[in-house]
Design brief:
Elements lengths: L3 E2 L11 H12 L10 H13 L6 E4 L1 H13 L5 E6 L4 H8 L3 E6 L9 H14 L8 E6 L11 H8 L4 E6 L3 H4 L13 E6 L12 E4 L2 H8 L9 H11 L2 H22 L5 E3 L6 E6 L3 H10 L2 E2 L1 E2 L9 E5 L3 H16 L20
Parallel strand pairs: 1-11, 3-4, 3-5, 5-6, 6-7
Antiparallel strand pairs: 2-8, 7-8, 9-10, 10-13, 12-13
Helix pairs in contact: 1-9, 2-9, 3-4
Length: 362
């Protein structure tokens, strides 16, 4: 079997041949020597239609990573505090440091890293008291929902509580919302201190083409637009986005299938006596074992199974994250995990038939 790359939360399924051929057909008629293309406005209209909002509420970005950077450039900077519940996506902290935004990380509570809302609110209020009155927002709270890497879905009540602080901007990253079927995007029409980030990299299988978007009230999007570089998304990516959005039903079914595979994988992993699995509603699973995580990471790689390791995140010491793959990749991962556990003589034996991955694979 080829290497199983289960470390980046990608969609394991490529675009259907018919969708890919349609993209290539449109591309063959496109003029790539010009900067401006009408495709971007068509993409915005399709996104607006799908989400029940106006095109003016949407800013297109080069993946959601650029949307995070634009948010930090537009609303962060000196005097602003970024409050980041952790562990979470590392790009939030990184771009805030680039933009000279003060960073305050709030560790999660308990074995599931629940957001410590009391401490987050305290930091928001402290930022409000100390920040200059000239600043529109004294703080930015970055929330990933569901959270990467824990797969946890923070409650609507917690988000609503944060939005009550008028000088707090909540940046809600919904990169994985298609897998959990929960979204707060419609809140942007009633909250002028909320920005929602989306991407076509995950459920829509366009990770290699880099197209994301941010959604907010028109006033916030007008401010963010001034921080967007011109021509930030290539014409080919725009064409591909336009086509896949016209096949939303297909990708919705794929996302539902991946969610089922995630639930299956979590159930099978939980059968290993020495494996602790965090319940996930996304297309990835965070877990730990009794083994050293660096050793296990390398041991799995020897079997051509690549998972995510967090050597620079103290909160995730001992943890690894595996993305949901194809059935064959998921079974290969389970077999490799069982084999790694069996190499440690002092460990408990795996549950089930280890010759088939330590668990029943039906």
């Amino acid at each position: 079997m080829a290497d199983a790359w289960l470390d980046k939360n990608e969609n394991p399924f490529d675009l259907p041949d018919g969708v890919k051929q349609r993209i290539l057909q449109l591309a063959s008629d496109a003029c790539f020597s010009r900067y401006e293309h009408s495709y971007l406005e068509q993409v915005r209209r399709l996104l607006a239609q799908a989400n029940g909002i106006q095109p003016e509420n949407i800013l297109i970005s080069c993946g959601s990573d650029e949307a995070i950077l634009i948010a930090a450039l537009a609303f962060g900077g000196q005097g602003v505090t970024a409050v980041i519940p952790t562990p979470t996506f590392g790009v939030y902290k990184e771009v805030c440091q680039w933009t000279n935004t003060n960073v305050c990380c709030v560790p999660g509570l308990g074995e599931h890293f629940e957001m410590d809302l009391e401490v987050v609110l305290r930091q928001v209020h402290e930022a409000d008291k100390s920040a200059s009155e000239r600043l529109q927002f004294a703080s930015i709270v970055f929330l990933c929902r569901p959270n990467n890497p824990t797969g946890k879905l923070c409650s609507e009540d917690d988000v609503r509580e944060l939005l009550k602080s008028r000088r707090c901007l909540v940046v809600l990253d919904e990169a994985y919302h298609e897998f959990c079927r929960s979204t707060l995007l419609h809140w942007v029409t009633t909250h002028d201190n909320l920005i929602v980030l989306r991407t076509l990299s995950k459920a829509y299988a366009l990770a290699g083409l880099r197209l994301g978007y941010m959604v907010g009230c028109q006033r916030l999007m007008a401010i963010a637009e001034r921080r967007r570089l011109p021509y930030n998304v290539g014409a080919f990516s725009q064409l591909a986005a336009m086509v896949v959005l016209q096949h939303a039903e297909h990708f919705g079914k794929i996302a539902a299938s991946i969610r089922q595979k995630s639930e299956w994988l979590q159930c099978r992993m939980a059968l290993f006596p020495s494996v602790s699995v965090l319940p996930s509603v996304a297309n990835f699973v965070l877990f730990r074992t009794e083994l050293d995580s660096a050793w296990l990471h390398n041991r799995l790689a020897q079997d051509r199974i690549h998972v995510r390791h967090y050597p620079d995140e103290p909160l995730l010491d001992g943890y690894l994250r595996v993305s949901v793959g194809t059935d064959a990749e998921n079974e290969a991962f389970l077999r490799a995990l069982c084999a790694a556990l069996e190499t440690q003589e002092a460990r408990k034996p795996c549950a089930g038939d280890c010759s088939r991955g330590g668990v029943p694979l039906e």
